Amino acid sequence: MNYNFDEIIDRKGTDALKLEALLPRWGREDLIPMWIADMDFRTPPFIVNAVKKRIQCEVFGYTDKPLAWYQSIINWQKRRHHLNITKEMICFVPGVVPAIVMAMEAFTNVGDNVLIQPPVYYPFEAAIRNTSRKVVTNPLLIENGQYRINFEDFEEKVKICKLFILCNPHNPGGRVWTREELQKLADICSKYQVLMISDEIHADLTLPSHQHTSLASLSKEVAMNCVTFSSASKTFNMAGLASAYAIIPNPEVRQKFLDKTVGYMLTDGNIFAFQTTVAAYEEGEEWLSQLLQYIQGNINFLLQYVDKYLPKVKYLIPQASYLVFLDFRELGLSQEELVSFCTNKAHLALVDGSVFGKEGTGFMRINLASPRSVIEKALNQLKEAFSNN
Ligand SMILES: Cc1ncc(COP(=O)(O)O)c(C=O)c1O
Q: Is the pTM of this model over 0.85?
């Protein structure tokens, strides 16, 4: 079956955050929304069918986690990421971000240092600050148009930390970290006995010519010092279903995490959380393969367009996911001017790069998980804004 990613789906009237936030956050509604990381593509039919099947019984009472949910995660992680896990290691969480907040409470104390690698997904910093822990940064470096890790700085910083949060693959830079890079991070963390969290929510969106490495797949030793968070939500466009999971091989670490999640009664999930993940992981391979081809096509389209018409704009070529970090630094605008240019001149709602950390200043993140015609329109608007400037 060929899926149609060119279809324009009107999300108006569905309370879509992508649209509802335009006026309050950007101050206007006449923008193409290309910010929050969800997709404008139709959620795949096997997931819609799982929802439909469940609503046939018109009783929406409490629900349990079926064995099939655990098994689908075990099979998927093994097949796609060579990660061997067992049922006991899997813990339900309503989202990766809530899980990161819970991890702060489970694994650190108020005032402890937690390491992140900016520019990075901004809820990491928020989770640390909101739980009164301290942010320590190991800024990424740009080399040959890609982020790379400054390992000397990493070792210096991690020494004084209790926990390290890795974005694997990286958002907003789209880097797929190599085995060697991950092993180096793991070795340093092991040396200083610092627990690692690997946020792998973008793993299944790794683009065709790259290979994601799950941190916990490196070795048993690494797995015992690592907590992996993932979900089918980003990949299969079902973020609104609030369903994710933690993989925690180390029983002591797992118990600390469960003490928090069970304590906050956050382990139950909603009636759609489980069977939709089963459907995604059991029936999703073909759809995902076509999705990734389409996203790669959108990325190639953007890169060629920018090279041809917007030569002052640079970019980090994504190796995973549908987010591109556009580099506007050559324009010499202040961040405020840049945001205003994209919003008020180009009529695009993009993510201000500086929210990922000061290292993201001069950048804007664009979401390309939309029909190609929308991407083309957005780029034409950007080009026009440049020519009128
Ligand atoms: C790296 C990363 N982690 C987590 C999330 C969100 O996870 P959830 O919706 O499960 O809280 C996102 C969403 O964009 C993300 O990019």
A: yes
